[in-house]
Specification:
The protein has 3 helices and 5 strands; from the N terminus they run ββαβαβαβ. The protein is α/β, with parallel strands linked by helices and 111 residues long. The protein has a domain at 1-8 and 28-66 and 95-103: Uncharacterised protein PF08960, DUF1874 (Rossmann fold, 3-Layer(aba) Sandwich). It has a 5-stranded mixed sheet with strand order 2-5-4-1-3, covered by helices on one side. The longest helix has 11 residues, at 49-59. The N and C termini lie close together (11 Å).
Length: 111
Amino acid sequence: MKVYVFNTLIVPCDFGFCDQFTVKFRKIDKEEAREILKNNEFVSAVGHQATAEVLSGILGVQVEMNRIAVKMNKGDVGVHFFLKQRLPEGAVLGKEELEKLEYDFILSEVN
């Protein structure tokens, strides 16, 4: 099992590995997100520096900016930082602007 951190709700699955997946989503609070990341080695797929900084502060773990392509497999989980609003096209927010927005944490489980 691998644990990933995302700044999107997209669940990128590896269809070269398997041609069918079931993904379960569940809303979690920041305390549960923090525990999952503190208790597991995780891979950050957060591709924006300010978002990585905000997540590090919220969750109390070091979330690195890491602009990578991920392919999840069965058994993998993702902790998703999901903004409750869509940003205007081309918008790039700084840390202070991001901290003012509403968000949810979503846990995805690939089976």
